[in-house]
Amino acid sequence: MSRFIVVVLMGILSIVHGQQTDKPIAPPNEKNDSHVSALYVLGDSSVDCGDNTLFYPLLHGRLSLYPCNGSDATLLPQLLAEKIGLTSIRPFYGQNGSLEEVLGGLNFGSTQATIMNQGSYSHQSLNQQLRQVSETMQLLQLQLTEDTAFQFTKSSIFFLSFGKEDYIELFLHNSSSSNQTLQRGAQYFATILVNQMANAARYLYNANARKITCLGILPLGCTPRMAWELNSTSSAGDYNANGCVEHVNDMIFEYNRLLDEQIDKLNTEFPDAQMVFCDVYNGMMEIINEPRLYGFEDVKSACCGLGLNGAMIGCISMNMACDQASTHVWWDLFNPTQTVNKILADAAWSGQPIADLCRPISIHQLASMKV
């Protein structure tokens, strides 16, 4: 029996032993002028360190057991939760099904999760995570009054960060389908993925979500593993001065551009909701192009990894990590360091030190909105 089913059954049992309650729940958090009841996170390794994936140590891919340095608390959504004034968001599979834990917010994210359903049982795809969100919201409606659950969901933020793993699969798995997709061009694949993300936003809206944040994909062509792995197949002119693979970044840029446009359309489609796009691609390129301005010394090599630029084998032991992670842009094969995430969190929250990271409004403004 999967742990997901166990969690749902525990929630149902709690309903059986205690009928629907209309007891008041805590009001939305008001730290930093925030009006946010909870944060619900969906995504891939950009939001999860591996502790939210069943049997991750046995089924992980690309030899990186620790895709972040320490815990989920070092990642962007947790850093933003702290700014909002929320406590640590529990992993979905780390909860026991209690109402209090659901009300505190949950991280449904799963390392190596994809937008497209890859047919893998080890990593939760976008659709699988959406189903988990739906089950969770239904439990809220069962355990609270309908009006209370509705208002709670409306005032919560739903945070989505997908796409990185889909592009990793595309570029690093030399399958016939990958080759056909690459031949059709950047816009073809990006359109497929962005349409799925737009449908996910609509799905959440229909589940009463009114504050939704979508994260773009980081500059994947600059990651240590991508630069190393494509070295033999890319021409010398395909690399820029920072060692980034240009054709990879061009495809990521196209995805982010289309997602940004789609968020604008969704805001028109749903005027009673606020959807925000956060452009971590341009944010990280600012850092990579001017590293010393932000306190970094190394923009190419992973802090935790083995081989050339730490790109051949990922972080299989925390003892492998460099002494000063804060001077590195990259933590492991594909993920930034906590220091980079902190800069991005500051920019997403306030627009400083990198302007216009999130649009049309900042996360602070999103959190301050009353719905």
UniProtKB/TrEMBL annotation:
An example Gene Ontology biological process: lipid catabolic process
Keyword Oxidoreductase on entry: no
Keyword hit for Hydrolase: yes
Listed GO MF terms: hydrolase activity, acting on ester bonds
Signal peptide region: 1-18
Pfam families for this protein: Lipase_GDSL
Keyword annotations of the record: Hydrolase, Lipid degradation, Lipid metabolism, Signal
Source species, domain of life: Eukaryota
PANTHER family for this protein: GDSL LIPASE/ACYLHYDROLASE FAMILY PROTEIN (AFU_ORTHOLOGUE AFUA_4G14700), OS12G0126100 PROTEIN
Family membership noted in the UniProt record: Belongs to the 'GDSL' lipolytic enzyme family.
Protein name: GDSL esterase/lipase
Organism of derivation: Phaseolus coccineus
